[in-house]
Fold each of these.
Amino acid sequence: MFEVRNLTAAYGQSEVLHGIDLAVQPGEIVAVVGRNGMGKSTLMKSMIGVMPSRSGQIVVDGVDVTALPSHRRVANGLAYVPQGRQIFGTMTVKENIETGRVVTGRTDIPNEIYDLFPILKDFERRRGGNLSGGQQQQLAIARALASDPKVLLLDEPTEGIQPSIIKDIARLLRDIRDLRNLCIVVCEQVLSFVLDIADRILVMEGGRIVHADTRQNVNEAAIARFLAV
């Protein structure tokens, strides 16, 4: 369903991603972990098209989207929850979610979104900027799901979220995967969260994938060493 082939990206003359290969099946959650500065966010921005790639391919359900701008990638099935959430603070919860519907040509909000996020139904007339950090993260995920994606990309979804809410976010992602049979790719640093959600774990170091484990065979100590400062 989702494949990244030999992807490279650079800031000016400085190459940051060095030939990333990634393949995700429907219903699979893949976590990309690594310390700050290892290229995780650059990978996310390259996949969604916020940052142009230098070479390689990004394929969604058989369609090469590498040359497409971000909004066309969304129309072809990619959805993105950015680091820091970036919800529209002055817009209501309902209006925020509706912005995700634009690429579908529809304005109705599917009932399953409010079923997944009942707090957003309760607060649908509240401004996004008045929500807590955990509620804003739910809103950012709901907005992404509103585009009816095949692939959901999340960059550091636990950032700024209190530990009790992190478990709720993990449960939500598993529920979304089971409900929609999505491909989910998460870039993250919190190993406990990763071990709670991921079917496969990939470690980034210096813009490369340097280690990979399935959840069943995970070597926690090895991964923790890559995350140590």
Note: Residues 2-85+150-227 form a domain with the Rossmann fold fold (CATH 3.40.50.300).
Amino acid sequence: MLPQIRGRIVTLSSEFHRRAKLNLDDPNWRRRRYNSSQAYNDSKLANLLFARELHRKLLACGSQILSVAAHPGIVHTGLFGHVNGAAGLYLDIGSRIVGHDVEKGILPALFAATQEISGGTFVGPNGFRQLRGFPAIVQSSKNGNNTQLGQRLWQLSESLTGTRFDCGIPRPAV
């Protein structure tokens, strides 16, 4: 799809990326006991790293396309219904107390898609601990800025999908 994109790509992440323990040696949880909460956290860090690595690759190709990331904060949507036990109950109640509704939760993604911001930027709510609030450019975790980890994830993704990035045109791996 990259040849058809003219403006920017917004990748959705989550504030839960801060709890990630991304294991690139076992990304599909084959050698570890599966933990749905941890898998979610890891996937959100992977999304953020993807957005930033895509930005670096597009920039290196001279592309005008921007790649940015956004997270909605805590939004009460019922998303945490798959989380079992006390953690699920905690997340459901917590999202009702400290989170915001879907209409406010979508604002960071809209901001990331429409405002004048730099590639590689991370947008989220500006309130306490980025749980809710108005959209703003926010800081990610240290791992969310880890270029080396982003490059390793990109290489793993190319290997697992059998494709490689070539200045905006994905091609089959040789």
Note: The beta strands are 8-12, 66-70, 122-125, 135-137, 163-164, 171-172.
Amino acid sequence: MFGLPKSTEISKFLPKKTIFDRFKPAAAERRLFNEQISRLTIVAEISPQTVNIPAGKDVPAIYIILIALKEAECDKKNIALLSKLIDQRMLFALQHKGAVRFAVYRAGRALISEYKKVDDWKLDLTGFDLDKIWENLIAETSGVDLVEGRNLDEAIAAKELGERLTKKIVALEKRAMKERQPRRKWELVEEIKRLKAELGCVLSDKE
């Protein structure tokens, strides 16, 4: 599944009741979980026992959890809850109908990809140990560019900043096109130039 070696494939159902009984999340957390999530199944284990790759200093194994959703969207609170309750490195495959989007919890935030058809996902196990493979899987599924001189968490923060700047630039460009007052229009254009310069620095990792 997802282009992973057949040796990693498993099928272990995770009953929601067992998770609730063991970890006892708050009532509001249980309600949101039940509203959006139908079932959970461990579908892959990436470990020294299943692939010829040594454990890392921090990552002994990686698990792929297939989550069948009742609706297309999954609240990031559910991803955070699962990650905090279960002390494992987990990559969540959120499945709705015939499509899957991946989610992972990292650096205090839930990162969620776009949907693709199940067969279009081909996860690449690149790295000399599971620490590096874990980071590369997060980057791959989250659309994060790992550039030299920037670690994964810095790359995640840069991606989010870049997205915020891009949205702001688009909004200001729309305002500038509609603006009738020359002075105000000029101010908007200058602000757009400044934000584009900042965005360029973020994308190129320049200070």
Note: The longest helix spans residues 152-178.
Amino acid sequence: MRPFLALLASLVFSTAFAGTTIDLSAEASLPAANDLLKAVVYSEAHGSAPAEIARRDNQENAEALRLIRNKPSVTVKTGNQLTYPFYGNNRRIDSWRMHSELLLESKDIATLSELLGRLQQMKLALGNVSQSPSSSTRLEIEEAATREAIKAFERRAGVIAQTMGKPYRIKQLNIQQAGSFPPVMPMRAARAMLTADAAPAPIEAGESMLTVSISGQNELTD
């Protein structure tokens, strides 16, 4: 029992002589270039025979993939592939529709913009477009914002300590990152962007705001 009593006495002693604690928060926001563009294009086929619509849909996707793969700066992967029936008045299957997506991604916004126009000319529809900072850009800006947020936290802590006429030490820090990104462009607006002559999609990358928030607890010491 003696070691336990000694530990308990130590904890009581530390608590009794602890300084005043102050909860603080600070944040910093920095712009990050939306240098990564993502887009979804899709093809649809409709008919009475599932095998036939699958053949036509696969042919359209194969032609699209050949075009996309000629652009080394653009990556592509398959997305959702759905086949679903349409029912007639007699509640029997009247026809079938197949929906296939391709997911495109690139930091070369000009090339992807032009490519989206050419894909629409091939009768593929544009589902949506989203823009965001790439992983490397996001990491760089988050690190810079973290440094600025820490400086802001220290300045605030220093002002309080100076006003109170006591030194301080940081007891705890909690760091959180958040971002504000442009909304995803909806399907109807995206289709209207492109014309039949395969004009490049008018995409402006813009910037996103990345915010780092810091909350913590300081202790004023004697």
Note: The CA atoms of residues 95 and 219 lie 72 Å apart.
